[in-house]
Specification:
With about 80 residues, this protein is mainly α. The chain contains four helices and no strands.
């Protein structure tokens, strides 16, 4: 997964994303590679792109759910 001259793989970037949001825990072996993330512009750019993509998808899903689940529709379901 990680060596001194290699970049962080996507699995670790995803674990970092989930951990940042309190949805998962990082593993003990993630500490070294995450230090690399703090000093590598290429890995940081990949993480920023991943974060943006996931955040945009989340917001789109929330918007779709909000438009489909109007207060009137939710009230009708409660009845």
């Amino acid at each position: 997964m990680f060596a001194a001259k290699r970049h962080i793989d996507n699995d670790l970037l995803i674990r970092r994303y989930l951990a940042d949001r309190g949805l998962a825990a990082l593993e003990a072996g993630d500490e070294g590679p995450l230090r690399h993330l703090a000093h590598c512009a290429a890995c940081e750019a990949r993480y920023a792109a991943l974060r943006t993509g996931f955040d945009d998808s989340r917001l789109a899903a929330i918007t779709d759910a909000d438009s489909a689940c109007t207060p009137e529709r939710m009230e009708h379901q409660r009845d």
